[in-house]
Amino acid sequence: MIGAGVELAVALVALVVAGLSGLAAALIGGALATAAQVAAVALLRPGMKAETPEFVKHWVSGIGLRAGAALVLVALVFATKAVLPPPWMVLGFFAVLLTLLYTETRFLE
């Protein structure tokens, strides 16, 4: 819910500042971050109570997923830069991802 709230806030600001294209860009970036984070947590969960080497394997897989999502973001920015404003897509992605990363530490404790 927190990620959705952040995504909505960024999207509304983008709508006011940049119009519908900014709204779309922010929503795409936020959705990509949400998908990456949900998948990373799903990979990490089974390793939470495992021995250190197994935990690290799951943890690194989650990091790899997030890095892959960042590469997808870069590809999307270049592919849609004529139609969607890149700053809003990047802001939507990082605002949601960083918020979810912070809340992940509280969720997994």
Give an overview in words.
This protein is mainly alpha-helical and 109 residues long. The chain has one domain (2-107). 85% of the residues lie in helices and 0% in strands. It contains four helices and no strands. The chain has helices at residues 2-18, 20-44, 52-80, 86-107. Helix 3 (52-80) runs antiparallel to helix 4.
- Beta percentage is under 5%
Cα separation of the termini: 18 Å
Low-pLDDT ranges:
none
Task: Please give the count of helices.
Answer: 4
Helix/strand-derived category reads mainly alpha
Secondary structure elements and their pairing?
Blueprint: H1 2-18, H2 20-44, H3 52-80, H4 86-107
Helix pairs in contact: 1-2, 1-4, 2-3, 2-4, 3-4
Q: Notable features of this structure?
A:
109 residues, mainly alpha, elongated
